Amino acid sequence: MINDEIRAKEVRLIGADGEQLGIIGFREALQMAQDANLDLVNVAPTAKPPVCRIMDYGKFRYEQQKKEKEARKNQKVVELKEIRFSATIDEHDFQTKLRNCIKFLQDGDKVKLSVRFRGREIAHADIGRRVLERVATESAEHCIVERVPKLEGRSMIMILAPKQSS
């Protein structure tokens, strides 16, 4: 709340340069802010009496928005990449998909590994589990297992997350 929006008889006032001015009546505090061509901003409305500060509110809002924009720019969005295997995957195909998996993990993305069982392959789900566990062991230095292999319908799914570089 700023200026006339504040509904208190007395406020604890902080000056424009940060010094404490003590408990002052609201009208007097508002007059001091207007004399300095600044705004009276309520910074702690729940305190008794409320704490108000004399500052340039427009400049304050601009600085806040700049900080928020900078924080948004620096955050990394983690994507979930999916790599599909088959239970009867050949060695070269396996190595190619493993390389892609490691590349995704190094980029900081999570990887969802799935084995799709077709026809009667579902009776040998242990073969699919071995394929997923082999991927996990061969890429162990780049990842941690976030979700162990689990059969869901005709697919077995496992999720790997990148190791945090500390």
TrEMBL record:
<dbReference type="InterPro" id="IPR019813">
    <property type="entry name" value="Translation_initiation_fac3_CS"/>
</dbReference>
<feature type="domain" description="Translation initiation factor 3 N-terminal">
    <location>
        <begin position="2"/>
        <end position="71"/>
    </location>
</feature>
<dbReference type="InterPro" id="IPR036787">
    <property type="entry name" value="T_IF-3_N_sf"/>
</dbReference>
<protein>
    <recommendedName>
        <fullName>Translation initiation factor IF-3</fullName>
    </recommendedName>
</protein>
<dbReference type="Pfam" id="PF05198">
    <property type="entry name" value="IF3_N"/>
</dbReference>
<keyword id="KW-0963">Cytoplasm</keyword>
<dbReference type="Pfam" id="PF00707">
    <property type="entry name" value="IF3_C"/>
</dbReference>
<comment type="similarity">
    <text>Belongs to the IF-3 family.</text>
</comment>
<keyword id="KW-0396">Initiation factor</keyword>
<keyword id="KW-0648">Protein biosynthesis</keyword>
<comment type="subunit">
    <text>Monomer.</text>
</comment>
<dbReference type="InterPro" id="IPR001288">
    <property type="entry name" value="Translation_initiation_fac_3"/>
</dbReference>
<dbReference type="InterPro" id="IPR036788">
    <property type="entry name" value="T_IF-3_C_sf"/>
</dbReference>
<dbReference type="InterPro" id="IPR019815">
    <property type="entry name" value="Translation_initiation_fac_3_C"/>
</dbReference>
<dbReference type="GO" id="GO:0003743">
    <property type="term" value="F:translation initiation factor activity"/>
</dbReference>
<dbReference type="InterPro" id="IPR019814">
    <property type="entry name" value="Translation_initiation_fac_3_N"/>
</dbReference>
<feature type="domain" description="Translation initiation factor 3 C-terminal">
    <location>
        <begin position="78"/>
        <end position="163"/>
    </location>
</feature>
<comment type="function">
    <text>IF-3 binds to the 30S ribosomal subunit and shifts the equilibrium between 70S ribosomes and their 50S and 30S subunits in favor of the free subunits, thus enhancing the availability of 30S subunits on which protein synthesis initiation begins.</text>
</comment>
